[in-house]
Amino acid sequence: MFIAIMAMLATGKYLDRTRRHGAPRLVGDVRGMTAPNFDLATLDGRRVKLSDYRGKAVLLNFWATWCAPCKVEMPWFVDLQKKYGNDGLVILGVAMDDSEAPKIAEFASEMGVNYPVLLGTDKVSEDYGNVEFLPTSFYIDRDGRIVGKGTGLLGRSELEENVRRALASPVAGMNKAQASPDQAKTVKAGTSAQ
Predict the structure, then answer these.
(1) Angle of CA points 182, 184, 185, to nearest 5°
(2) Axis-axis angle for helices 68-84, 156-168 (nearest 10)
(3) From CA 23, how far away is CA 150, in angstroms rounded?
(4) Is 58 exposed, middle or buried, given 0-12, 13-18 or 19+ CB atoms closer than 10 A?
(5) What is the pLDDT at residue 28?
(6) How far apart are CA 177 and CA 168, in angstroms?
(7) Among 36, 105, 121, 187, whose Cα sits 20 to 30 Å from the Cα of 48?
(8) Domain interval for residue 54
(9) Is residue 19 part of a domain?
(10) Is 22 a domain residue?
(11) In CATH, what number is assigned to the domain containing residue 160?
(12) What residues are annotated to the active site?
């Protein structure tokens, strides 16, 4: 009887969520799926959409200030942004804290974050498959397709490999001759790394 009651409660919660936002879009193997667009506030109040970064490779990282593994990854992300930013990488950190923006901004500053930090919402979490574990990262290619997903603390080399894979994908309809010199260099480097 207890199991039946729990199942009914879980189903009710799921149905309530799907009525508000629709079913979670990213479940299972998400490679090749289009990353859901979003409109989130930055720490300074600007609005950012994922679609603003079409043509760039995006590492979308869900994290929180209280998450110990997130604190391990953040310096690696800072280094990756420095190393691959000129090649078209954009790292977006989605803070899933209940804290106010100034407290999150103070934490990000202490960590030396050099990439935009966005204020996460239940909607963006749901759109990305109900992000339950932090950190969770999505690697999105230049055409807005997911090339990888990582949950939990990954090794630095695995993070970088996923970044190179995202950078290696040219924008749809663009061949190597049309790519900028930086894109062509990254496409060549990413192809040889696979």
Answers:
(1) 65
(2) 40
(3) 21
(4) buried
(5) 59
(6) 14
(7) 187
(8) 30-193
(9) no
(10) no
(11) 3.40.30.10
(12) 67, 70
The pTM is what? 0.76
Q: How many domains does the chain have?
A: 1
pLDDT of residue 168: 94
The crossing angle, in degrees rounded to 10, of helices 181-193 and 156-168 is 130
pLDDT digits (tens, 9 = 90+) for 62-72: 999 999 999 99
Within-domain flag for 2:
no
The ranges of the chain with pLDDT < 50 are 4, 6-21, 23-24, 173-194
pLDDT digits (tens, 9 = 90+) for 43-99: 999 999 999 999 999 999 999 999 999 999 999 999 999 999 999 999 999 999 988
Tokens 């894109």 correspond to 183
Q: Is residue 123 domain-resident?
A: yes
